[in-house]
Amino acid sequence: MIRILLVDDHTIFRDGLKRLLHEENDMAVVAETADAGDALMCLRTTPIDVVLLDINMKGRSGLDVLPSIKAEKPAPPVIVLSMYPAETYALRALDAGASGYIAKDMDFHELITCIRKVAAGGKYFPAEILDRVLRHSRSDDAEEAPQARLSSREFEIMMLIVKGQRLTDIGTQLFLSVKTVSTYRSRIMQKLNLGNNAELVQYALRHKLID
């Protein structure tokens, strides 16, 4: 039996996914949490074989907590779940220690295949970026694009800015002060050598981070 920890802050999504997973004879959700930090407590109290970890959560994001999960002993494999397409986050998730990446709009059977593969010690990434994943894994130079220099939190805030969210709204969503979000924005602009939000949106479009 594959014992799964489900980490996602959307109750309806968790409930629906649990029902689907329990229909599989070889897997079960044995623990769940809406908070990335609480996932660590679950790992210390419940035997877990695979973690399903959402990227986009209030407070500490999935990518922020992923290295901490991988530092646990024993550290179960982690599959990152995201509303974003694989081209946006998959390589960053791989660098953070993820064994798999599934976009939330993918077919459920692909998630099942992914869970079974990573539980057996393998890795699973979408076919459309598999070549990039293999090249990335073989390369000592992960700096394929300037955004690779951004931290996980900086990248997350960048994506929220380019989607049109105000700094105050970003702060509320991530439990950060507006001043802190503004500081992150300044770091992002400096690292990408950009001057304003319009240039940031153009950058995201040019690098296919958004449609």
From TrEMBL:
Biological process GO annotation list? phosphorelay signal transduction system; regulation of DNA-templated transcription
Q: Report if keyword Transmembrane is assigned.
A: no
The residue ranges of the Response regulatory domain are: 3-119
Positions of post-translational 4-aspartylphosphate modification: 54
List the keywords (alphabetical). Answer: DNA-binding, Phosphoprotein, Transcription, Transcription regulation
What InterPro entries does the database record attribute to this sequence?
Answer: CheY-like_superfamily, NreC/VraR/RcsB-like_REC, Sig_transdc_resp-reg_C-effctor, Sig_transdc_resp-reg_receiver, Tscrpt_reg_LuxR_C, WalR-like
**Ranges where the HTH luxR-type domain occurs:** 143-208
By what name is this protein known? Response regulator transcription factor
